[in-house]
Fold this sequence. Notes:
The chain is α/β, with parallel strands linked by helices and 145 residues long. The chain has one domain: 3-Layer(aba) Sandwich (Rossmann fold). The protein is 43% helix and 28% strand. Strands 5-2-1-6-7 form a 5-stranded parallel sheet, with helices on both faces. The model is unreliable at 118-124 (pLDDT under 50). This is Universal stress protein. Pfam families: Usp.
Amino acid sequence: MINIVLPVDFGDKTDQLVDGAIKFAKQLNGRIYLIHVAPSDIGFAIGDMGFQYFPEVEANEIREELVQLNKIEQRIIAHDIDCEHLLKQGLAKDIILEHAKEKNADYIVMGSHGRSGIYDVFVGSLTKGITKSSSIPVLVLPIHD
């Protein structure tokens, strides 16, 4: 069976990315390892008293993200594709690449919004970073309008 790592960010194009990964997994008789990487600073805020940490904010956000991850996992399973999910906090690129190695991934499937130039200079591109650093083939699906 082919192992596919599918990072998701719950953005407005996540459904398109999941649809493409489902199609790819069906063609290859693949298993999908769904992953979401939350930032480490979810519970931090800057206010009048400087940086403050609110553990309840972080816990609520993680709980909501797990619900979303479970929904996507069930959607994939409904297509008769083996799937499991993972939510971790930290640096997305490093965690995704580490997870892909742990799962002996044959592919990482990611999306590209088709942005370039000045946007990448200021925001960066996770997909670009993964494709530059990965020893595992990365399938980039166009998910722009």
